[in-house]
Design brief:
By secondary structure, this protein is of the alpha+beta class. The protein is 36% helix and 22% strand. The longest helix has 28 residues.
Length: 747
Amino acid sequence: MSKLVIVESPAKAKTIGKYLGGGYTVKATVGHLRDLPKSTMGVDIPGGFLLDYRPIEGKQETIKALKTAAQKAEAVYLATDPDREGEAISWHLIELLGIGEANAHRVTFNEITPKVVQSAIRNPRKIDDNLVNAQQARRVLDRIVGYELSPLLWKKIKSGLSAGRVQSVATRLVVDREEEIRAFTPEEYWEIAVELSRLAGTGRFAASFYGNESGRVALKSREQAESVVSAVRGAPFSVLACKRGEKKRNPAPPFITSTLQQDASRKLSMSAKRVMAIAQQLYEGVDIAGHGLIGLITYMRTDSLRLSDDAIAEVRAFIAKQYGAEYLPPKARLFKTKKSAQDAHEAIRPSHADLTPAQIKADLTPDQYKVYKLIWDRFTACQMEAAVYDTLTIDTVSAGWIFRANHTQIKFPGFTAIYEEARDEEEKLGNPLPDLKEGEPLRLEGVDPSQHFTQPPARYNEATLIKAMEERGIGRPSTYAPTLSTIQDREYVVREGRALRPTPLGEVITNLMKDKFTDIIDVAFSARMEDLLDEVEAGRKPWRDLLSEFYNAFSKNMEAAVESLKEGRLKIPDEKSDVTCDLCGHHMVIKMGRFGRFLACSHYPDCKNTKPLATDAPGRCPTCGGKILKKKSRNGYAYFGCEKNPGCPFMTWDAPTADNCEGCGHTLFKKSGRGNTKKTFCINETCANFTPEEQRGGWKKKTEQDQSQDKKTPAAKKAAATKKKPATKKTTAKKPAAKRTAAKKTP
């Protein structure tokens, strides 16, 4: 009898099966097999939060196959993902498949490598009931909010809406930021730049107004700025002080889920959802030449900065060999994990430090390579020496006013030889400065006062919103990506460039929640709920007690909200656009439809003109050179067209890229969708690099024969498929009788 190993992903099953070899059968669940029903809440609240779990529709064949395999196996190893959700899946498997307690073994893999997989199989454990209970508590909390609050939103605002503990708070953060921006009052301030030079020799440089010997001075009006300009124009400049120093910059810690999503957003312009999908592929295994199927990174849902001793030793040996001893600190760098972290897994790192991105680039898709390189670079850099900079600050003085110039120059690159952390605001380095001495006189070559106004806080982007959620304790590593995806899919929040802006719909829902469900949408309350779920996971709080405490307060709020909202519906205000109606000349507004947002004439019902809502896309139109816009069809599918439409007829389902063809200079395109093949191609038929449609991959244009086949009735198609072929005479020569008998005896 073989041993059965059950995982979640078929890709992971293939990799683990290779590492375990004969004697093991590895099968995949492809996600959950049992859950609460979709049609009802599935939670008996008066009965003490009893849960009505049922097999998921469409999973019956998978359950049957796994049950058959489990009955034949001498032992079953439940190897679902190493988190609350994975623990719950394993618990459901025991119930569904009827696996005896003595026959069920729970194993987890932080990384999918032969050593770790085989070690985990040798050291199984029992199901962690606390992890399962924490998952059940979260599931029920989300059920209660979704199934009791969402119908109220349907009734009072619009059908098809949803509310959730985490998604509603994330939306509120975006709405609150928008309100800050609207309420912001700009304040005037002035800057003064001077250009100075030495009296003898070369050495021209720029300096900026700082203040006086008492400290920094803010110039808040034209009069103040002109007073300073007038004073320094009539007085000599000299060097007040030259300060030389050295500054060290230590590397950032290895990635956790939130920082990976933030860096991928800033550096790769990838959504949190996309980067997590790619990281999952790298974790589960990729076929690498010379290595076969291999898991390339450790588990990607983690909030821990912990690194294994083996991983540190491996990367330190690699750094010393590849970069030299001067790049290796005397001791390994250890990073402190936050107190609030679950610390269930290591930080995100490569499974093999010596497997460089360059070595395996040919075996990865472009996106897989980018994400793997990001993870590999950050991990390797975190164990390298600090970067060292020479700094120089020169203070010059005239009429008692100080003007300062700064310059920073790298002395030793250290970890920056591999990786630099992306920042929302990049540090500015000054231009090189001349070698000046204190007291040296200077000549004023020019003075330039400039007026400025303070800017409102920037809108969130995906990176900064994830950072804000993490800092406030909203959600956990596994929830960041789906939360951001949900609030955008529901169109409570939209992306403009990289910035996130709330829609009128998102604002109406948020304001209703603020008014009627203060706790649900309160940031501090949401963080407290996450802490309580962690208490359940640690075994310090019964999960049904947590649910009871939550529901007692929630049900009272629901009753009060239903009572106060008896009459009427809340109106979603139209969102104005800068587009003019082609038919009547009135401005168009943005409305919500079945397939998302679209433009409609504000003069409705007199004018019923509608248009797709377009956003800018990279590249230029290959027909006329205009901007390419991304639009949505009436059925909700994305396509790309020229901004000059209908004057320019260009339209395509293929996605434009920011790259240009080397042959003709036209924009390169790639197939849309989530496929792994993202090869770019030129669509210019006069170019030597032109790629015909049938060679681009993805959807293929139907031939005339295919189209005629489509026109046939279902009965005609069935008749053609079942039409008997003419019998063909077998021509295989018969074997001699003796040989036929011998063949039968061969096992």
